[in-house]
Amino acid sequence: MNRRQFLLTTGAAAAALSARAATVPVTAKLHIATNTYPWGTYAKREKRDYVLHTPSALDEIASTGITGYEPAIKTPAEFDGLAERLRQRGLEMRSLYVNSVLHEPDQARQSIDEVLAIARRAAETGTKIIVTNPAPIRWGENTDKTDPQLITQAKSLDLLGAELGALGITLAYHNHDSELRQGAREFHHMMTATDPRKVKLCLDAHWIFRGCGDSQVALFDAVENYGSRIVELHLRQSQGGVWTETFDGASDIDYARLAAWLKAKGLKPLLVLEQAVEARSTVMRSLWLAFGSKRLASFG
User: Fold this and answer.
1) Burial class (CB in 10 A: 0-12, 13-18, 19+), 154
2) Phi, psi of 197 (to 5 degrees)
3) Which terminal residue of the chain, N or C, has fewer Cβ atoms less than 10 Å from its own Cβ?
């Protein structure tokens, strides 16, 4: 599919804007979710508070026409009253994101139990996927895990995936750029040493792209090797390596190619928008969280 064909085959999907902006409705056949991380980055840039799960935060998301909500959950208490607030706004929480520490034996079991406590509450809301990115040694530092730690982490992922499966929930492994250091040994070991039946993949195309030196070759090699395990996509775009506010327009990652690959394999992962801003991002629309409807429609 070339760019012209891609643009011509699009329908009306979602343009996610703030509560004060005009909205474009999501097409009925394409469920689109948003991770809550972007909303926090935009709020921070605008020097305003953003608190997860609050009526105002959910109203802002619902006003866009997006129908999916993927928050980062830290405690089971966050579910108190959440299902009803989501229902009132027509939002579904098909997936959620949790942190975990799985590379140390003495911490892994405690972390697994914490995730399972969240999962039991999540199951009550209809959540089907839990995404986790096992924590690095220290956030913000380029400290690599040892081989024994990687082996422990992979075994812990398998165990967590099996226990979540018993609750009817799928575990999806997620990575940032740190897992792509040292020949991507952490990322590859998590994929090759875990059971594909227990541990699926939340493909964050942009983190693989960035972690491999802004390489689409590396991204699509990963897709070819592990794509059959993709159950969810985190969607973010950049221009010249810098995150952009919009998902349409000039871009680094060929999402039309990715959409075509998934269609050819008969895969229909959950689509979760995660457009965000960083220090060098161009301010395009103040207070807008703008996602492209045209490129998203290619996944329908």
Assistant:
1) buried
2) -75, -20
3) N
The pLDDT tens digits of the residues spanning 104-153 come to 999 999 999 999 999 999 999 999 999 999 999 987 778 899 999 999 99
Q: Look at strands 238-239 and 242-243 and give their pairing.
A: antiparallel
The DSSP result for the chain, as a single string, is: --HHHHHHT-----B---TTS--BPPPTT--EEEESHHHHHHHHHTT----TT-HHHHHHHHTTT--EEE-B---GGGGTTHHHHHHHTT-B--EEEEEE--SSHHHHHHHHHHHHHHHHHHHHTT--EEEEEE--SSTTS--PPPHHHHHHHHHHHHHHHHHHHTTT-EEEE---SGGGHHHHHHHHHHHHSS-TTTEEEEEEHHHHHHHTTS-HHHHHHHHHHHGGGEEEEEE--EETTEE-S-SSSS-SS-HHHHHHHHHHHT--PEEEE-----TT----STT-----HHHHHTT-
Residue pair 201/229 in contact (Cβ under 8 Å)? The answer is yes
d(CA 98, CA 155): 18
State pLDDT tens for residues 4-49.
Answer: 332 233 222 223 323 222 333 444 468 999 999 989 988 888 888 9
pTM of the model as a whole = 0.88
Which domains are assigned to the chain? 3-297 (3.20.20.150)
256, 6 Cβ separation under 8 angstroms: yes
